[in-house]
């Protein structure tokens, strides 16, 4: 964890292998005792940024569910908070099944192509 980061931004060392692509979709996420619904700001193959005024703490484990544009079936997966800032939080995806990984990868490629 970056110890001397400004108070509004807490993060772990950035391990992103690729840039995030902008996408806004409703995302539901839950912790052990709470359920939330917000919107995404961006996504890549390894995670998503969720806009929220009440971000969770670093390392908090979450269950995510969201529907990708053009898909009928929602993506369901686990993740953990790896970045917290005043406008939201970055979630690193946990293990993805092959179908979810492919759906997310296809969306990210499409979004990057559309830029």
Please render the helix and strand layout as text.
Elements: E1 10-11, E2 21-22, E3 26-30, E4 35-44, E5 47-51, E6 61-66, E7 75-85, E8 88-93, H1 98-114
Antiparallel strand pairs: 1-7, 2-4, 3-4, 3-6, 4-5, 5-8, 6-7, 7-8
What is the percent of helical residues?
10-25%
N-to-C series of helices and strands: EEEEEEEEH
Q: Class, according to the CATH hierarchy?
A: Mainly Beta
**Beta-strand residue percentage:** 35-45%
- Give, in spatial order, the strands making up the sheet with the most strands: 3-4-5-8-7-6
Model regions low in confidence, pLDDT < 50 over at least 5 residues: 1-6
Biggest sheet character: 6 strands, antiparallel, barrel
Backbone CA Rg: 14 Å
Q: What's the rounded overall pLDDT mean?
A: 85
Tell me the CATH architecture: Beta Barrel
Give the helix tally: 1
Number of strands: 8
**How many domains is the backbone divided into?**
1
CATH fold group:
Thrombin, subunit H
Distance between the termini: 32 Å
């Amino acid at each position: 964890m970056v110890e001397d980061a400004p108070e509004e931004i807490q993060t772990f060392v950035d391990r992103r292998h690729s840039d995030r692509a902008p996408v806004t979709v409703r995302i539901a996420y839950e912790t052990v005792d709470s359920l939330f619904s917000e919107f995404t700001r961006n996504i890549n193959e390894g995670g998503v940024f969720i806009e929220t005024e009440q971000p969770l703490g670093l390392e908090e484990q979450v269950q995510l569910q969201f529907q990708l544009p053009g898909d009928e079936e929602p993506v369901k997966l686990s993740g953990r908070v790896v970045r917290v800032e005043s406008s939201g939080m970055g979630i690193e995806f946990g293990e993805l099944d092959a179908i979810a990984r492919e759906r997310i990868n296809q969306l990210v490629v499409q979004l990057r192509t559309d830029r």
